Amino acid sequence: MSTHVSPLAGKPAPASLLVDVSKLLAAYGDLRPDPSVPAQRVAFGTSGHRGSSFERSFNEWHVLAISQAICEYRKGKGIDGPLFIGFDTHALSQPAFESALEVLAANGVQTLIARRGEFTPTPVISHAILTYNEKRNAGLADGIVITPSHNPPDNGGFKYNPPNGGPADTDITGWIQQRANALLEGGLKEVKRVPFEQARRADTTREHDYREAYIGDLANVVDFDVIRSAGVHMGVDPLGGAGVHYWAPIAERYKLDLTVVSDEVDPQFGFMTVDWDGKIRMDPSSSYAMQRLIGLKDQYDVAFACDTDHDRHGIVTRSSGLMAPNHYLSVLIDYLFRNRPDWKADAGVGKTVVSTALIDRVAKRLGRTLNEVPVGFKWFVDGLFDGSLGFGGEESAGASFLRHNGTVWTTDKDGIVPALLSAEITARNGRDPGELYRALVDELGEPFADRVEAPANPAQKKKLAKLSPDQVKSSELAGEKIDKVIDHAPGNDAAIGGIRVNAASGWFAARPSGTEDIYKIYAESFSDKDHLQAILKEAQQIVDTALGSA
């Protein structure tokens, strides 16, 4: 197995890569999925149902079926408050929103849509749900987020957030998925639907000022006074995403020295530099995709970007350029637990099993409990909701945190807040997060890490997800005794959908992606780069054997 880095990686996207938006939208309405074909059925991964209209994996029928299933789920569970809905800047998101609203209105669901048809970031929907439900025991709200996150421009995505504000757990998505596929198999005969214009004018459809509500509350999670008083000069690249029109109002309200690098919205995302595999992908953690902001790093004290639905962040510093997500999250955890005195004394640190072991060391030094869970932000929802977790984060640059007073902020990933916190950190410490990372590893040890990605079809992904400890025959990893092989997370004993192999000074984990047709091997060494490469080589051999390749 190997990861082939495209010769286009890091370069401006050529015209040949740009999606034909008119054909994409035509395929959304014209191509119907065949529910007898597994790849064309509704399938909720770690972040909802995703696919492309060209491949008949994200089409009008999928959205109509999922929306009807959600309406039926709400009715069955007695969820009768408003439903908050938002969508991002992917081309398929607008028609998917229209399809969903047609079903929601026909089912009599009170639906709150953004004023003036604005794009709405994922964390803003979570924030709206939680704010509405606070101190309520009945008439609870829930939400829908229409986004494929940072995935390529030809993708669409659809996610349901229940009243706890976070991504739906598998018991919910399993029910919705099963019911939606039954509706597909029945030719949508049981789907209630009205024309969009009628849905838009329905008494149950109302506009909501998402932007004002979210921005006005940010001071309860970010210390803008310290940022402003220190005069931190910031730059932000929204990457053409759903928060594109949030940043200027944030700067104006809180009187920040914040420059928006670009407010361009382009469904082809033609302004992007190409990602590692030759695809356009709005990933703020990828140095290939972040070339524009990296090139501007010396113009700002700290700069940041968010992905298309603004639930992931990328931090660019003068001292180190684009920070690896694990590096910034380690600094962020260390900072927050030292500077949020009103958080519970026993509030823990939540991380995924593929996040850096440096977080383990930071948590131990802070005297905080570490809660290690499988990949998927849904595993942090309960802890963030009740304040037992001060932080929940993923190695893919997704995280959320508590308010200053220790109460819930969002239970879904929020890319905007950690971006702004990089400025708070810089202001309070007089050093940017890159410099603070160097100080951290000088004390706790420096991890050398890499992640290998490669294409994998659904059958291969399924095989890898079932990889078990007894399939690891070796007793050593890169010359060290293997301490432990796990396929369930220590924090909650849930299956991790792959394995992780631990040794004294290094580890690797292998798992299929829940959102794309790729698989990933994560590896880390606290020795050196040669040791890291040895770990990766042995990990690749194990995965290749599991997949039946040479």
TrEMBL record:
GO terms for biological process: carbohydrate metabolic process; purine ribonucleoside salvage. It comes from the Bacteria. Transmembrane segments: none annotated. Its cofactor is Mg(2+). Coiled coil: none annotated. GO terms for molecular function: magnesium ion binding; phosphoglucomutase activity; phosphopentomutase activity. Pfam families: PGM_PMM_I, PGM_PMM_II, PGM_PMM_III, PGM_PMM_IV. Residues 488-538 form the Alpha-D-phosphohexomutase C-terminal domain. It is an enzyme of class 5 (isomerase). Gene3D superfamilies: Alpha-D-Glucose-1,6-Bisphosphate, subunit A, domain 3, Alpha-D-phosphohexomutase, C-terminal domain. Its EC number is 5.4.2.2. Keywords: Isomerase, Magnesium, Metal-binding, Phosphoprotein. Residues 42-182, 212-317, 325-442 form the Alpha-D-phosphohexomutase alpha/beta/alpha domain. Belongs to the phosphohexose mutase family. PANTHER family: PHOSPHOGLUCOMUTASE 2B-RELATED, PHOSPHOMANNOMUTASE 45A. This is Phosphoglucomutase. It comes from Rhodanobacter glycinis.
